[in-house]
C-alpha cells in the first residue's frame, strides 16, 4: 500500500483543538480514512489518492468529519459516518453549531462514487444532534446500526436503511459504541462525559428483542469509577468493552458476567478513547491513549490536572486471553488502527481534543500514519515507563476508588516499581490475568518506608495493580518495564 500523503501538519479546520486520522478501513482494494478537523475523506487505490470535502452535506468551507472511527464495509460499499460543520462558523474562541450535521456517506468501490446516505441537524447555536460514533452492519436485517452518544439530541441506537437512507430510532439512551457477538449486537449505554458506561444493551438480531445487563465487579476485587467507553470488539463469543481504567469482558447471554479487568488505570484520563479496536490473529488489537481529550485553560483545577497529567506513552495492546500484551509505545495518541497486507496502520496525533471556549480556527495537531509489520504481535514488547503522582489515586479515594495500575507484565524480564513515599505506608499488589471465565486475583502486601522504595515485580506474572493503605499527596511512583 503506497501512501503519498502520510503526514498532516496544522491546517484550517475550526473546532476544539485537534481531530486526527480516523476510520482507517482497507476494503475491496481501497484504503479509506478521514482527516479531521479538515473534513477530508481520503480514498487510496493503486497509489492514487482522491479526497472529498463533505460538501454533499452543505456549503463549504467545511470542518470536522469524524472523531470516533465510524466506518464499515458491506458488499462493494464503504459506509463512513461522523459529523461535519457545513459551513464552519468560528468566532470568539467558540464554534457555532447551527451548521453542524451528523452524517453517513457511502463510497462505491466499484465505480469510485460517493453518495450522501443520511444527515441530521438540530440547527442550534450551542447544541448539536448526536454524532455517529459507530456503524455496525446487521447481516440478518441487511441494515446499518448507528451508535450516537456525543451530542444533546437524537441520541441512542438507530437503524438505517442502506438503500433508502431512512433512519429509525431503536433506543433513545446515549450509546457511543457497539459490536456483534454471535447473533446479538451489544451496545454500551451511558454519557461518557458525565457518567461513563452505565450498562450494556443487547439486541437480538433475529427476534428484535432487547436485553439489559449491568457491568459486574472487578477481578482485583477493588472499586472502579466512571468507566468512559472508548472502543468495543468481540472474540471468543464474548463482548470486550474498553473503558477508562481497563476493560469489561464476558457474555451474560451465555451465563458469564461482564467482569472489569483493571488496565492502565492511573486515575487520570489515560484511556482507550477516540480509537478503535480490530481483530487480528484471532485476538483484539487496540490502544490506550495518554492524551486524547484535555482542558487547555486551568479554570477547573481538578479537571485540568487529571486530563493534562501525562502518566506514560500511549500503548498499543494485543488481547489474547488470558494474555494482555503491550506491542507498541507511541506519543500523545493513536486515533485509528487497521490491518493491510501484513502491515498494521496507525493514525497518530500529537494533540488532544479540547472543549468549551478553547476552540481554534485550525487543527492544532501534527498527525501521521505509521506503518508497522504485524509481526510486532509476536515480538518482545517495547521498554515502557509510567510515572504517576500518588496524589491522583489518593484523591480518587474521595470518589470511592484509589486502586491504580493494571500493568501487563507479559514479555518483560525486569519489571519494577519505584515508590517515592512521603511517609511510611503499606502497599497491596494484586496479581491476576484475563482468564475467561475470570479466576480472581492474588494479593500481597509490602511495607513502604519514607523515601525511595524499589519493588521488584519479576516475581509477579500476568497483570498487577496497586493500592496504598494511606493517602500520599506528595509521593510518586515510576513503573519501569524492560
Automatic annotation (TrEMBL):
InterPro entries given in the database record: UCP016666, WD40/YVTN_repeat-like_dom_sf
A UniProt-annotated Pfam family: DUF2139
Name the record gives this protein: Phosphate ABC transporter substrate-binding protein
Organism: Thermococcus onnurineus (strain NA1)
Amino acid at each position: 500500500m503506497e501512501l503519498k500523503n502520510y503526514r498532516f501538519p496544522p491546517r484550517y479546520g475550526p473546532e476544539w483543538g485537534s481531530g486526527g486520522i480516523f476510520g482507517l478501513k482497507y476494503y475491496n482494494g481501497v484504503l479509506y480514512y478521514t482527516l479531521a478537523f479538515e473534513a477530508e475523506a481520503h480514498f487510496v487505490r493503486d497509489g492514487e489518492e482522491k479526497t472529498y470535502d463533505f460538501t454533499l452535506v452543505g456549503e463549504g468551507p467545511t470542518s470536522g468529519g469524524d472523531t470516533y472511527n465510524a466506518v464499515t464495509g458491506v458488499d462493494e460499499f464503504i459506509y463512513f459516518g461522523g459529523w461535519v460543520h457545513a459551513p464552519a462558523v468560528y468566532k470568539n474562541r467558540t464554534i457555532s453549531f447551527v451548521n453542524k450535521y451528523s452524517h453517513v456517506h457511502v463510497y462505491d468501490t466499484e465505480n469510485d462514487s460517493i453518495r450522501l446516505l443520511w444527515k441530521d441537524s438540530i440547527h442550534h447555536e450551542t447544541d448539536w444532534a448526536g454524532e455517529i460514533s459507530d456503524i455496525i452492519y446487521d447481516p440478518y436485517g441487511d441494515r446499518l446500526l448507528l451508535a450516537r452518544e456525543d451530542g444533546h439530541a437524537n441520541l441512542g441506537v438507530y437503524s438505517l436503511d442502506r438503500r433508502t437512507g431512512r433512519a429509525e430510532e431503536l433506543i433513545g439512551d446515549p450509546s457511543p459504541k457497539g459490536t456483534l457477538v454471535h447473533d446479538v449486537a451489544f451496545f454500551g449505554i451511558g454519557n461518557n462525559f458525565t457518567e461513563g458506561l452505565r450498562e450494556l444493551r443487547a439486541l437480538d438480531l433475529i427476534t428484535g428483542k432487547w436485553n439489559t445487563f449491568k457491568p459486574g465487579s472487578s477481578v482485583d476485587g477493588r472499586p472502579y469509577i466512571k468507566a468512559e467507553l472508548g472502543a468495543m470488539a468481540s472474540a471468543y463469543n464474548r463482548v470486550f468493552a474498553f473503558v477508562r481504567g481497563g476493560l469489561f469482558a464476558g457474555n451474560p447471554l451465555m451465563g458469564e458476567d461482564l467482569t472489569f479487568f483493571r488496565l492502565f488505570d492511573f486515575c487520570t484520563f489515560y484511556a482507550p478513547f477516540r480509537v478503535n479496536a480490530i481483530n487480528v490473529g484471532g485476538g483484539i488489537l487496540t490502544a490506550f491513549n495518554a492524551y486524547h481529550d484535555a482542558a487547555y485553560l486551568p479554570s477547573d483545577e481538578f479537571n485540568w490536572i487529571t486530563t493534562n497529567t501525562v502518566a506514560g506513552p500511549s500503548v498499543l495492546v494485543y488481547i489474547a486471553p488470558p494474555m494482555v500484551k503491550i506491542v507498541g509505545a507511541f506519543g500523545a495518541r493513536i486515533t485509528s488502527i487497521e490491518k493491510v497486507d501484513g502491515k498494521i496502520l496507525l493514525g497518530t496525533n500529537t494533540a488532544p481534543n479540547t472543549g468549551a471556549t478553547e476552540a481554534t480556527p485550525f487543527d492544532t495537531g501534527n498527525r501521521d500514519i505509521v506503518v508497522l509489520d504485524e509481526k510486532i504481535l509476536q515480538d518482545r514488547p517495547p521498554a515502557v515507563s509510567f510515572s504517576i503522582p500518588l496524589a491522583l489515586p489518593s484523591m480518587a479515594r474521595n470518589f470511592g476508588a484509589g486502586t491504580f495500575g493494571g500493568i501487563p507484565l507479559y514479555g518483560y524480564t525486569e519489571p519494577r516499581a519505584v515508590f517515592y513515599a512521603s511517609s511510611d505506608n503499606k502497599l497491596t499488589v494484586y496479581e491476576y490475568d484475563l482468564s475467561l471465565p475470570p479466576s480472581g486475583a492474588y494479593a500481597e502486601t509490602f511495607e513502604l518506608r519514607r523515601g525511595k522504595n524499589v519493588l521488584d515485580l519479576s516475581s509477579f506474572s500476568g497483570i498487577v495493580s496497586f493500592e496504598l493503605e494511606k493517602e500520599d499527596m506528595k509521593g510518586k511512583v515510576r513503573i519501569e518495564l524492560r
